[in-house]
Amino acid sequence: MHRSGLHVVLWLGLLLVSGCGAVAAGEKGKAVRVSLDSAQLSLAYEGERHALLIGISQYDDDAWNDLRYPGKDAEDLGRALADPRHGGFRSVTVLNQPEQTTRAAVLEALRELAARPWRPKDVLVVYVSGHGTLARDARGELQRYLVMRDTRFRDVQGTGLEMAVLERELEQLGSRRRVLVLATCHSGTGKSLLPPSVLEELERTKGAFPPRPLEEDSRASLVLSASDWGEAAREDDALANDIYTHFFVEALDGRGDRNRDGAVSATEAHDWARRNTWTYTQGRQRPSARMTEVGADPVLLSGTLTRPGQPEVFSYSPRLEGFTLKVDGVDAGELPGGVTLPEGNRRLGLHKGGEVLWEDTVALRPGERRALDSLLREFARGHRRTAALEVGALGFLDGRSRREVLPPTMMAGASLRWEGVLLERRLDVGVDLSAGQGRRALQLDVGGTVPVRHRAVMLGVTVGPSWQWGRLGVSTGPRVAALWLERSFQLDLLSQDERYVTVWPGWMAGVSWRVASQFVLEARGQLLWAYVPVDGRTRAVGFGGLSLGGGYRF
Amino acid sequence: MRAPRHPWFIAWGALAFMGACGGFNNGPLEEGTVRGRLLGAEADVAHVSVLGQPDLRASVAADGRFELTRVPATSVELFLVATRTRAARARVEPQGARVTDLGDIDAPQGAFVTVRMRDADGKIPSRGEVEVEGTTLDDLKLDTSTGEVRVGPLPAGCYTLEVQGDKHGKVEEEVCVREGESLVRDFILRGEDDDDGGTDDDGGD
User: Fold this and answer.
1) Which residues of A fall within a CB distance of 8 Å from B24?
2) From the list B18, B24, B33, which residue is nearest A498 (CB)?
3) Could you report the per-residue pLDDT of B29-43, keeping only the tens digit for each?
4) For residue B186, which of A2, A347, A355, B116 is within the disulfide window of CB 3.0 to 4.6 Å?
């Protein structure tokens, strides 16, 4: 009977462990580690590069004013991408002639793209420079539209290219490295014009701009926009380009290679263009980027990987707009965007207006790219959990009880700890279950050496605070443990099992060392105040245990 | 203070108040059994006991086998009487809740002590008895015709003889015997108010 009880306990432990594995397998959005040598890196990015660049300068409907540079934008970008010394794209299709920029022609070009055999590693860049606008679709929802040469101002819905359609076309491609670059805007200023009905609606809106349309959660892997939502994208005569495009092209000649790995990725080019656009426009135009498939970038647009780059930390989350990333207490860059860092253990911090949003020590290796969002997500989630497997020993503290009542027992078990679930996140709660058995001998003054098989099962709950200093963690707190102790004698004159079930109060203290972002080594000690009936009399003695284990944080 | 959110908080509390059940008992581990076989034993007189605890005794079967139970599981000495003339002592350390087998024991010739009793007037007391302390040799009655008690067989070793006569105080004397030895001890018994008993050692052969 008790044998089956022990099995139940072991099964529970196993379930706990397998449960942890299931969580780990299904989890998304964690830090993306890319740390390989240059040869492996080149292999990883092997794939053909193709580009479809659309620049629409002339419009049939007089309501849209002609633009000066979209055609040139597309050509300049195409030149940089096709240059074997830089982009080395296998195909670059530029649509900037009037007959190439009608809605039908653009859709046909997209269909031709879709007809190609695409592999996941292939890179596709779709670039659009021209007017953007907003209009109600057939369901009455506000949507973003790209204005084609033949788009009519009075019928944007019927004649414009809906962003949703464009993204649907992109989604059908087999490539996972799809970059949509929009040198356009939908704000009604700059390279944008809005229908009167939409303008009236904007005037009635309390905010500076209506909420982002749902379809803005693009299905492209990476969406780079020349301006943030609600801002104008501008052309500039001095640059003879769309401002963002000018700096985007500039980045491809190698200047954008922030991490010095020999190649310019899409986000590196964007960050280069974003910072320069922001400076050039004196903060009036803030290009934005969104990554919908974490890990899709780096999409290499120029150059080849020759070496592992410096470690990078990045975030393109709009909510981090205006935050400064500090590394070891020194300003490293503004967010959103990416920054390169020296390798090694770095103290990262997010600061804004003298306040610290988050700080942590992160181990960075060459070639590694860490998404700040995932680090923050772990922080923001607050209720972190650690599941651990442990081995250790449990027994009475005094020698007499160890000799005469129960020898120390080797234990194996599992624990689960929820961090910050009580008292406004000040206290953790931990639950642990362990079981063990042994064959030792009692040493009795009268009775001599008596062999005994002993077993123990302990189920404990601990509540207490924990502190972290970099990789080191310390926790402590009161504890209550339910114990089931058994000793079994199989002797000439005695075949008997004795059991004792009780609940003891005590105290636990532990230290942990984080060996990776999600794996920790733990050592825990516990003291319990024990009262044990022996020979009809109750002994009040100390009971304690030490355990070592490995934990998975999720 | 919020109420506990999880049922297991309540379960813990209930368990804590339930207290404990069960316990451990080392009693059965403090005694053992000793067995063996006395060679050439005379079953009608042969017996085994624990020296110092004569209540712990066992008889011996016709084939000489004996089994002495509930022996304290610590170092003890057995007092073994095999025949009317042969006896032995054996030191043994029984193990708790287990059987300790001494194997075959060939008891040597025992010693005999002849106790002579006289009162203060030099007369044979009307009644008297002798006991060897800590052994099964007790209540050995005085032969009033001779005024003597023959005590034995005693395995080699030292013993305390307790001699007591009717209306006389108890007299004790330490005596050590060798294998096969015969001794004579004279005891002069005095009144109960006078505990100054005395002996004369006449030696032995």
Assistant:
1) 405-406, 487, 498, 500, 532-535
2) B24
3) 999 999 999 999 999
4) B116
Q: Using the beta-carbon criterion (under 8 Å), do B95 and A448 form an inter-chain contact?
A: yes
Q: Average of pLDDT values for A539-543?
A: 90
CA distance B49 to B134: 9
> Strand pairing partners for A289?
A224
Q: Which of B22, B33, B95 sits opposite A499 (nearest CB)?
A: B22
Long-range contacts of A269-278 (CB under 8 A, 24+ apart): A269/A301, A269/A302, A270/A224, A271/A337, A271/A338, A272/A247, A272/A248, A273/A244, A273/A245, A273/A246, A273/A247, A273/A248, A274/A244, A274/A337, A275/A337, A276/A247, A276/A250, A277/A226, A277/A243, A277/A244, A277/A247
Quick check: helix, strand or coil at residue B11? helix
| pLDDT value of residue A278 | 86
Q: Are A198 and A186 in contact (CB under 8 A)?
A: no
Query: Which CATH homologous superfamily contains domain B111-195?
Result: PapC, C-terminal domain (2.60.40.2070)
- Residue range A478-492: mean pLDDT, rounded: 94
| Amino acid A26: pLDDT | 27
For CATH 2.60.40.10, list the domain ranges present in chain B: 27-105
Backbone phi, psi, residue A99, to 5°: -75, -15
Q: Hey, which CATH number is domain A2-25+382-553, 3.90.1510.10, 3.90.228.20, 2.40.180.10, 2.40.160.20?
A: 2.40.160.20
- Residue A506 three-state SS: strand
* CATH no. for B27-105: 2.60.40.10
Provide the angle, in degrees to the nearest 10, between the axes of the packed helices A243-250 and A70-82.
10
Phi, psi of B177 (to 5 degrees): -125, 155
User: A217: pLDDT confidence band, cut at 50, 70 and 90?
Assistant: very low
d(CA A449, CA B95): 7
Q: Name the 3-class secondary structure at A118.
A: coil
> Which residue among B18, B19, B96 places its CB closest to the CB of A450?
B96
User: What is the rounded CA–CA span in Å between residue A98 and residue A255?
Assistant: 33
Range from A53-62, A290-299, A314-323, A414-423 carrying the lowest mean pLDDT: A290-299
Q: Please judge whether B26 and A534 are an interchain contact, meaning their C-beta atoms are less than 8 angstroms apart.
A: yes
What single-letter amino acid sits at A53?
L
| B90-126 pLDDT tens trace | 999 999 999 999 999 999 999 999 999 998 888 999 8
Residue corresponding to tokens 């597309």: A74
Helix residue ranges per DSSP H, A214-318: 243-250, 266-280
Strand pairing class (B111-119; B182-189): parallel
CA–CA separation, A25 and B19 (whole Å):
42
Distance (Å, whole) CA A187 – CA A199: 10
> What percent of chain A is modeled with pLDDT above 90?
38
Whether residue A446 and residue B18 make contact (CB cut-off 8 A), yes or no, is: no
Reported as a single tens digit per residue, the pLDDT across B45-99 is 999 999 999 999 999 999 999 999 999 999 999 999 999 999 999 999 999 999 9
Element (H, E) at A107: helix A103-115
B189 to chain A, minimum CA–CA distance in Å?
41
Please count the residues of chain A.
554
Q: Report chain B residues whose CB lies below 8 A from the CB of A447.
A: 26, 29-31, 73-74, 95-97
Alpha-carbon distance A422 to A479, whole Å?
15
Q: What is the DSSP string of A259-282?
A: T-SSEEEHHHHHHHHHHHHHHHTT
Q: Which strands, in side-by-side order, build the sheet including B31-38? A: B65-72, B31-38, B99-105
For residues B26 and B191, give the distance between their C-alpha atoms in angstroms, rounded to a whole number.
49
Q: How far apart are CA A520 and CA A524, in angstroms?
A: 13
Residue intervals of chain B classified under CATH 2.60.40.2070 are 111-195
